[in-house]
Amino acid sequence: MTHARGERAALCDLLDRLGPDAPTLCDGWTTYDLAAHLVLRERRPDAAAGIALKPLAGHTAAVQESLKARHPYPELVGLVRRPGGVYGLVPFLDDAVNTLEMFVHHEDVRRAQPGWEPRTMPEDLDRLMWKRVSAGGRLMLRRSPVGVVLHRTGGGVALGGPRIGPKVEVTGPAPELLLFCFGRQEHARVELTGDPEAISRLKNAHLGI
Length: 209
Known about the structure:
single chain, alpha+beta, 4-stranded mixed beta sheet, 10 helices, 4 strands, globular
C-alpha cells in the first residue's frame, strides 16, 4: 500500500469512528464538512477551483453543501476511501498529489480531538515531507509577514517569507514543519525562537498553498 492509500484509509477509519459532528482543525468544519470537501476535491473538478481561487469560493461552498444534502455521512466517507476522478485512474498521480493532502487532513481530525500525540512517520515518508518543505517553503510561506528559517530536527535548513527584516527560527521534525507551513501553526509541535512580536505575527499569519 502506498503512503497516500495508507493515510487515506487511516483518515476514513477515524472519520467512521468519530461520526459526522466531530471537530476538525479546519475553521468551522466538522468531520462531515471535511468528508464533503475531499469528495468535491476529487470528484467535482467544476467546483474544485474555488478551493484556491476566492472569486469561485461561493460556488465551491454551495457544491460542498449540496454533497452533504445528497449523501449521508457514511456514504461520503465511503467515497473518500476510493480515490476519485483522475486519481482513481492514475495511481501514481494519487501518490504524488495526495500523500501530503491526506496526511494533513488526517492530522486535522486527529489533532482536534483530546489527548492526541504526534505520530512517528516511516523514514521514507519523513524524507518526502522534508523534501516538499525544503522545495516548497517559499511558496507555502509567501504570506508570512516575517522571514522564516526552518530547521529540521536531525539536519536540514530551508528559508521562507520576506528576505529582509526580522526572522523567526522554526525547529522540529519534518511532519511538524510541514503542518506549520500548511497553516496549522497552533497545533504543530515546533520550537519558535526570535523576536516575540515577530513570533506572534508568524503564529497568526495565513500560511499554506
